[in-house]
User: What shape does this take?
Amino acid sequence: MKRTFFILAMVMMLTAGFTQEAGKTEKVLPKKFATVITLYNDFWQGSFTNMKPRFLNQGADVYAMYNIAVENSPLIFAIGTGIGTHNLYSDAILKLDSNRNYQFVKINSIKDTAGNSLNYKKSKISVTYWDFPFEFRYEAQSGFRLGLGMKFGFVLSSLSKYKGDDLDGAGIKIKEKTKDLRNMEKWRYGLTARIGYKRMELYGYYSLTNLFKKDQGPELSPISIGISLRPLFLN
Assistant: This one.
């Protein structure tokens, strides 16, 4: 239901923007190259067994894009490459079960030697992708723009971080980092949408892939909502 609502909301937003600018179809000559910096929050969807995600899960994309104008129209096809990072903060840690598959374990369900629940300051999963985005974009002479596209990417790095009481219950404070998480989906892809004015845009991303391979980890995928800036344009 949440995914359906997101798609409908993005379609309505873009349709409304296009209706407002329908009369402004003058020829736009874009710069060939542009940088795009996006700051967003990840709203995680999926199975939350033994885990509650934090509301704020900040992430970022940095892309370089090449713009190709569609002749005699205000439409532009853009393709590029860059880095994207997603974070998931929660009240749980990842543990491998007897089949070497990941499961979440609530931190406060773990007891120390005195029988007390553990306290923690941070527990998160972080994944960085090398992405290849593309989009079709409408740009009016007024500076209004909207676009629909996709991005494909592969995992560059993945890790989990924990800061708090020793997970073995020894009663000491620790900082723990685990790199190269197992059972990750190596490739990811999803839908993107933008609507904005000149150098600033509202951005949305809807993932069509899960974070972990099927039946080898929790079923999780992000919906990202944020702001994009275009600080540099070059001919």
